[in-house]
Each structure stands twice: as C-alpha cells, then as structure tokens.
Amino acid sequence: MAKKAMIEREKKRQRMVKQYAAKRAALKEIAEDENRPREERFKAQLKLADLPRNSSATRLHNRCQLTGRPHAYHRKLKMSRIALRELGYQGHIPGLVKSSW
C-alpha cells in the first residue's frame, strides 16, 4: 500500500489540474498563435509560467485506485497488476482465470 500522503498529493494535483485547465488552455492558445504580436505571446508565456506547477497535466501519475501503487498500472482497469491478480483469484473479475499449463 502506498503512503497516504502520496495518494493525497496525487488527489491534490488532480484537483489543481481540473481547476486551472481552462486558464492553461487559453494561455497556451495565445502563446502558440503565430498571428498574434510577439509581445502578447511572450506575456501569455510568462502568465503560464506563473501558474502553479502542479496544475500541469504532465505532473499527474497514474495510481491504482485500490492500493495507490504507481507502478505496473493497467489503464483500462485503473489498478495495479497485484490488485488485479488478487481480485482475479477471488473471482471478482469476470472472465479472468488463473493460467496453468
């Protein structure tokens, strides 16, 4: 199980990304628009840099919803391989069976 502080930090980042998403998108659009004056684009880049770092979507990290584990994460199921295996053994995931040969 991951530390509770790490899980809470990730939740905080998700809230910040959602909160600043519209503002970031607007500033990025201005900064990347070649038709605008260079000074206006530069000001938009400075405003973008002034936003909190954790409001950037690239700082998010996928974590297992059950255990908080950051590694071996299955995007489709939103859980780690270990949690998936345990739920499979208990029969909670339909169609998943233990392989043997």
Automatic annotation (TrEMBL):
GO terms for molecular function: rRNA binding; structural constituent of ribosome. GO terms for cellular component: cytoplasm; small ribosomal subunit. It comes from the Bacteria. Keywords: Ribonucleoprotein, Ribosomal protein, RNA-binding, rRNA-binding. It holds the Pfam family Ribosomal_S14. Transmembrane segments: none annotated. InterPro entries: Ribosomal_uS14 (IPR001209), Ribosomal_uS14_bac/plastid (IPR023036), Ribosomal_uS14_CS (IPR018271). One of its GO terms (biological process) is translation. Belongs to the universal ribosomal protein uS14 family. Binds 16S rRNA, required for the assembly of 30S particles and may also be responsible for determining the conformation of the 16S rRNA at the A site. Part of the 30S ribosomal subunit. Contacts proteins S3 and S10. NCBIfam families: PRK08881.1 (NF006477). PANTHER family: 30S RIBOSOMAL PROTEIN S14, SMALL RIBOSOMAL SUBUNIT PROTEIN US14M. This is Small ribosomal subunit protein uS14. It comes from Tranquillimonas rosea.
